[in-house]
Amino acid sequence: SVDCSFSRGVCDWKQDADDDFDWNPADRDKGDGYYMAVPAFVGHKNDMGRLKLLLTDLKPKSSYCLVFSYRLAGEKVGKLRVFLANKKTAPVWEENKGKDEKWRTGKIEIFQGAETTNSVTFESERGKGKTGEIGVDNVILISGLCPED
Predict the structure, then answer these.
(1) Total domain count, the chain
(2) Would you say the pTM of this structure is higher than 0.85?
(3) Of 22, 100, 108, 129, which residue is 20 to 30 A from 38 by alpha carbon distance?
(4) In the predicted model, what is the mean pLDDT of residues 54-80?
């Protein structure tokens, strides 16, 4: 497995230059490193911020599981979507409200066919809310299919 988390990961992360705002590092509660977050008050409603994970070494014709922690904290904070580079139009994963401030786990299967997925984009869309944040952390890429819970 490949650790792509932000404080100690080995992966190549890039801020999208064509979006409305950047994701920023935020300190973890326990003080162990940081995660990437978009505070609710950044930008205007429906503005987008994209953080791209560049995947250069994925082997074609195999499958991977992308596992990540996320949270949507705050009322009407917005949406978090995940896009794979070879499926440009529709998100492969989307969440638009948090039941509470807790961190949850997201899993996405990446099937490598004739085309190789060379990037994964985490997109935050600003909602109406003024408090809270959208956060992503502990991004790990595992070879093979996603494990059942």
Answers:
(1) 1
(2) yes
(3) 108
(4) 88
